[in-house]
Design brief:
Blueprint lengths: L5 H26 L17 H20 L14 H22 L1 H4 L5
Subcellular location: Cell inner membrane
Family: Belongs to the MerT family.
Keywords: Cell inner membrane, Cell membrane, Membrane, Mercuric resistance, Mercury, Metal-binding, Transmembrane, Transmembrane helix, Transport
Length: 114
């Protein structure tokens, strides 16, 4: 695996932030003490939420395929073929997938904290 294998993970997290922005964004701002009627306008991204969710699933699906493919399919000398690097990338994948899951599902559980 070369450096471009980080791109699916990064794009998945960015898409998850976009999907959770409409719900988690106003709550985070309120928790930081920022208030105002303009916060209600942050729901402007709500119609695009399904698109962001599809992007999250696609990006993490691709990243999972690259990170968890058999070691025999890796070229010799690449990061994919090094067990320590491979394990670190797999852990990074699952941590970022968990963060993405929390962000994508935030509109379902965040009402219990508001």
């Amino acid at each position: 695996m070369n450096q471009d294998s980080n791109l699916p993970l990064i794009s998945g997290v960015i898409a998850a932030i976009g999907a959770g922005l409409c719900c988690a964004g106003p709550l985070v701002l309120l928790l930081l003490g920022i208030s105002g009627s303009w916060i209600s306008n942050l729901t402007l991204l709500e119609p695009y939420r399904p698109i962001f969710i599809v992007l999250v699933i696609a990006a993490f699906g691709f990243a999972g395929w690259k990170v968890h493919r058999p070691i025999e399919k890796c070229e010799q000398g690449t990061a994919c073929a090094i067990p320590k690097t491979r394990k670190r990338r797999q852990v990074t994948f699952w941590v970022s997938a968990l963060v993405a899951l929390v962000l994508v599902t935030s509109n379902y559980w965040i009402i219990w904290f508001a």
